[in-house]
Amino acid sequence: MQALQFNVDVPRFIAAKAVGTILGQQAFCRGPTKTLSLVDIAEPQLPGPDWVKIQTAYCGFCGSDLNLIFLHDSPTASPFTSFPCIIGHEAVGQIAETGSAVDDLSAGDRVAVNPILSCKVRGISPVCQSCAAGRPGNCENYAEGDFPPGMFLGINRRLNGGFAPYMAAHRSQVYRLPDELTTETAVMAEPAAVALQAVLDNLPAPDDRVLVIGGGVIGNLIIQMLRALEPNCHISVMEPAAFAADLARKTGADEVIAAKEVFSRTAAITNARIYKPMLGMEIAAGGFARIYDAVGRSSTLNLSMRLLAATGTLSVVGIGADVKLDLTPLWLKLQTVKGAYAYGRVTVDGQVRDVFEMALEFMAAGKIDAGRLVTHKFHLSDYRQMIAVNSDKARHQAFKTVAAFQ
To answer: In whole angstroms, what is the distance from residue 315 CA to residue 297 CA?
Structure first.
C-alpha cells in the first residue's frame, strides 16, 4: 500500500537546511534533500491480541506535521522519535480486523484513534507516574518498551500513522464514534481534545477576561471550548488573517484585537494600566486573567507575559522553535506559565473523564462546531499540493486539510 513517509538523518538534515535557504520549501519535498516521499509499504499486521487494524477514512494534516517536514522542530525531542516513519496522527476510519482479546469492537465499527504511544500501548508495567496520574501524553517511557521511540503514531518507525490506507492501534487507543457524528467531522477529534485539555487545565471563571493568541485550528477550537465550558467569560483573540479572525467571531470570540492596538484594547477590556519602559515593549499592570498562546514564538510569548495580569496563567499551546524570553513579567506579576500538550483524564463534577472521549461527545452534541474547520480534502498522491496549501493558509483560506481515503 502507498503511504507518506518522513525520513531524515544528520547528513540530510544539514543538506536540506542548506539547500532550503536557496530553494525554500521545495528542498524538503523534491530532489535528494527531500524529507517526505510517497512509498510502498506492507499492510500492517496486528502486534498482539489486544490490537485492531483500521481502514483509514480521513487523516488530518497538523501544523506539527509541517514543522516536522520542514525541520523546524527542536532536536530536543529527537530521542522520542524514530525514522523513517509514516506520518499522520489525526486519523479516523473503520475496524478491518480485531485481535483475539478485543471483544468490544467489531469489523465495520467507525472509530477515532488516540495516537499516544503510552506505557499501556508499549506493554510496560507498572506504568510511569505520568500515565498513572492520567496524563499519558506526557509518558516517561516514549523510548522504552515493545516499540521503537515515538511519542505518538506518526513519528514511530514500526507503527505507521494515518497517512496510509491501513494502520494498527492498541485497543486503548480506539474510540467508537457516536452515531450522531459523521466520520468527516470526527477527524477533528484529536485537535479538539488538545484544545479541550488546554482549557480544562486553565479554566476561566465566569467574569474572567481571557485572550487567545492565534485563530488557526487549535486557537479556534480553544475559543469554542471556552465558550462551551464557561459561556460568560469574555474572549478576545489576536489573529492577523482576516478570514480566520472572521471565523473566530462567528465561533465565540467577543472581540478581535489588532496587533497595533493590543495594549490600548487590553486597557479598555481589563481596566489595566499600560506603562512604557525606557526601552522595549510596554507592560500592563493588570491585564488578562488567562491567556492561551496557540503560536508559541518568542514574540507572542513575550507579549503574552506583558499582557497577563498578576497571578494570571499563560497556557503555551503552540509548539514553536527555540525562544528567548524576558522573564521580568514572570516574577514581577507572579505569573504561571503552563505547558499544554496532548490530553488525558480529568475530574469533572466528581467523575473521572477521558478528555478524548469528551471531545467526541462535545462534537456529537453540537457543543462545538469542529466540522466547519475541515476546509480542504486531498488524495494522498496530491500531498505536495496539501503541503503548499498548509504553507500559505491565508491565501487559500484553509483551516484543517485532510487526506481522504474514501
So the answer is: 13
